[in-house]
Design goal:
Strand content: under 5%
Order of helices and strands: HHHHHHH
Largest sheet: none
Radius of gyration: 23 Å
Number of helices: 7
Distance between the termini: 37 Å
Number of strands: 0
Structural class: mainly alpha
Length: about 140
């Protein structure tokens, strides 16, 4: 935009005006995200397998923000953890290994659960390698 400010051709001035208007609108939209609780954009970034937490490990991000975003991600998953806990508690009780029908059932089997398993799974996910996959596939 700095280069366009020096130009005098009408179409270049119109281009500059349009770019400034676009920038103003983007600034307005992005500033509204400051009022959304939970750092939703950071959490959304970490959910994407192509990014995970590694997105925030570049020099562009201070350690302060990394810590805040990691905690926000963990906090955002609490309702889902509680929901899974409620579903398991309302089931017919513990199941034997022979009754487990999937890897998910094995993960939910409380008899094999370790303390802080959820936190460990979150940490494993955030710190694991990214996966190159099209956004619509995950």
């Amino acid at each position: 935009m700095k280069q366009l400010q020096r130009k005098r051709a009408p179409w270049k001035q119109q281009m500059l005006y349009a770019l400034k208007a676009g920038r103003t609108k983007l600034d307005e939209y992005y500033s509204q995200t400051d009022y959304i609780p939970g750092n939703i954009y950071a959490v959304s970034t970490m959910i994407a397998p192509v990014n995970k937490f590694k997105f925030f490990l570049t020099k562009d991000w201070d350690q302060k923000w990394r810590d805040i975003y990691r905690k926000s991600f963990q906090h955002a998953l609490i309702p889902y953890q509680e929901q899974l806990s409620t579903i398991y508690q309302s089931s017919d009780g513990p199941r034997s290994v022979a009754q487990l029908s999937s890897k998910l059932d094995e993960m939910l089997d409380e008899s094999q659960a370790q303390p802080n398993t959820t936190t460990d799974e979150i940490t494993q996910y955030l710190d694991s390698d990214t996966i190159h996959i099209a956004p619509l596939e995950f």
